[in-house]
C-alpha cells in the first residue's frame, strides 16, 4: 500500500491548507478564551465557545486530511467530519437563540437539537459515515444519506436563523443592530461554507473548500465588533484591542507561507506597521477604558446622590406640609379675631384703631393665602392633590372674577377687557382650584403690565372644553426662562428683583389644571406681553351627560 499517495495528490495545496485552517484555529481559540475569561464563563460565552471549538475540531480534521501522508489517518479523520459539521451548525443556532432571548432554551428544545444530531452520530459511531476512500486520488465517498441529511440540517439552521432574527427584529427595536450584525455574520459564514462544500462535492474540486474558509475572519470580526460595541458578552472596549491582535497574527503568519522574496519583504513591512498600529490601538483602548470606568463610577455616585436628594426633597415636602397645616389654624384664628374686632363684637373701635385693624386684616389675609398656597405646593409635590368637582355656574363664576380684578386694574390704571359670552353652560369643576388658577393669571397680568397697558380675558366653550385666555401687554417672559416658568419657586429674570412674588402661583396653577384633566400653556415675547391658555374638560369629559 502506497502511503504517500494522499500526500502526492494534495501537495500543491499544503501551504494554502495550513494557512486557511491553522490560522483560523489559532485566532478562534484566542477569541474563545478571551470571551470566556472576560465574561466570567457566562452561559452565552460557553455556548459560543462550544460553537467555535466544534468548528476548530472540523478545521483540524480537515487540514489533517489535506496534508497527511498516512492513508489510515486520512480515513480516520474524514469519517467524523460530517457529524462535527452538523454539531457546529446546531451550536451556532443555539448561540443565536440564547443571544436574542437573553436566557437559556427549554429542556425540550435541547432534546430537539440533540435528536437532530443523532442520525449523524449513529452513522459515525457505526463506521458508516464514509463508504470507501479512493486512495489513488485521495478522495472519500461519503454516505449518501448522511451527505443529504447534513445539507438538510445546514439549510434548516440558516432558514431558522433568518426567520428567528426577523421575528425578534420586528418585536425589539432596541436590539435591531445587534440582531442584524450577528445574524448576517452567521448566515454569511454558514452560507459560504455550505455552498462551497456542496459545489466541491458535486464537482470533485475539493480545493474550493480551502478558499471558503477565508470568510471566517470576516465572521470573527463581526462577532468581535458585536462583543465590543453591543456588549453581547458584557465586555467593553476590547474590540479594538482584540482586532489589533488578530490583524497582527493574520499578517505575520503570511511570512511562513510565502516563497517570493519581494512578497516576504512587503509582508514584513506590513507586519511592522500593523504591530505599531496595534500598540497604539491597545494603549488608546486602555486609556478609554480607564476614562470610562471613572465616568461610570461618577455616574454611580451621582445616581446615589440623586436618590438621597430625592429623599431629602420628599422629607422637605412632608415637613412643609406639616408646618403649613400647623400654621393654618393660628392664622385662621388671628384672622377671625380681627374680623370680630372690626365687626364691633368686642366693642366700638376708634378710627385710629380701625385703621390698624384693617392693616392687620390685610396682612392676616395675605398670610392665610400664602399658607394655603404652600399647602397646595406640598400636595402637588407629594401627589396628594384632592380634586373636589362640583357643579359650577360659569356665568356667576366669571362675573365674580371680573368684579375681583376690575378694582385692581383700575388702581394701576390698566384697561381690563373681559370678553365672556352670555349663557355659559354649567361645568363640573373644582371651584377653589379653578378660581385660584384664573385669578392668579389675571393678578399676574395686572401686576406685570405697566400703567395704561391692557389685560384681556377671553372665555369660550367648544366641544365640551372650557377655554380661557389671559393676555397682557406687560414685560413678557425671557426666552431663556420659558421652559422653567412652571417650576416651583421660579420667577422670570426680568422681574425677579423689581416685582414682589413667591414663585408658587404658576406651579400650583399647572398642578391644579392638570389634576382636573386639563392643560395650561403660554406664548410670550419679552417686552411685548404674554398669553396664557387654559383648557378644562366640561360635562361629557368629566362624566356628566350632555
Structure report:
By secondary structure, this protein is of the alpha+beta class. The protein folds into 3 domains: 5-235, Rhopdopsin 7-helix transmembrane proteins (Up-down Bundle), CATH 1.20.1070; 303-381, Helix Hairpins, CATH 1.10.287; 390-537, Histidine kinase-like ATPase, C-terminal domain (Heat Shock Protein 90), CATH 3.30.565. Helices cover 65% and strands 10% of the residues. It contains 16 helices and 9 strands. It has helices at residues 5-10, 14-38, 43-67, 71-78, 81-101, 107-125, 144-171, 176-203, 208-212, 215-229, 239-253, 261-342, 351-381, 394-411, 431-448, 505-515, and strands at residues 130-134, 139-142, 390-393, 415-419, 426-429, 454-462, 465-472, 519-525, 529-537. A 5-stranded mixed sheet has the order 4-6-7-9-8, with helices on one face. A hairpin with a 2-residue loop joins strand 6 and strand 7. Helix 5 (81-101) packs parallel to helix 7 and helix 15 (431-448) packs antiparallel against helix 16. It is rod-shaped, with a radius of gyration of 41 Å. The chain starts with a helix and ends in a 9-residue tail after the last strand.
Question: Briefly, what is this?
Answer:
This protein has 546 residues and is an alpha+beta fold.
Topology of this protein?
Blueprint: H1 5-10, H2 14-38, H3 43-67, H4 71-78, H5 81-101, H6 107-125, E1 130-134, E2 139-142, H7 144-171, H8 176-203, H9 208-212, H10 215-229, H11 239-253, H12 261-342, H13 351-381, E3 390-393, H14 394-411, E4 415-419, E5 426-429, H15 431-448, E6 454-462, E7 465-472, H16 505-515, E8 519-525, E9 529-537
Parallel strand pairs: 4-6
Antiparallel strand pairs: 1-2, 3-5, 6-7, 7-9, 8-9
